[in-house]
Amino acid sequence: DAGGLDIKFHACPLKDAWMAAGFAPEKIAALCRIAGVVDDGTFAAAGFSFGAETWRPGEEGCCFLHIRPGAAGPRDPQLRP
Question: H or E segment at 34?
Fold first, then answer.
């Protein structure tokens, strides 16, 4: 709605490829955080406020994105880094 958009991904081709390559879950989590930086810049450049909860070992699915209208600013403190 006009207040924002929340998207929970249940699969990710990057995460799947890193898992298939045999990377340790902790390394995959770090790579997910790094890949998420691209989203930060993309949404900020489009004029949105953005936060992401990236995948962590033991969790189902993948990233949970939070997109809000307005100028980009510091990450929402309610979201995990």
Answer: helix 25-45
Q: Which phi and psi angles does 65 have, rounded to 5°?
A: -100, 145
Is the CB of residue 66 less than 8 Å from the CB of residue 6? Answer: yes
Q: Tokens representing 79?
A: 């979201």
pLDDT (tens place) for every residue of the chain, 81 residues total: 888 999 999 999 999 999 999 999 999 999 999 998 888 888 888 889 999 999 999 999 999 999 999 864 555 545 554
What residue has token string 């100028």? Answer: 71
Which residues pair with residue 5 across a beta bridge?
Answer: 67
Q: What would the two tokens of residue 77 be?
A: 């403190």
Report the DSSP beta bridge partners of residue 1.
Answer: none
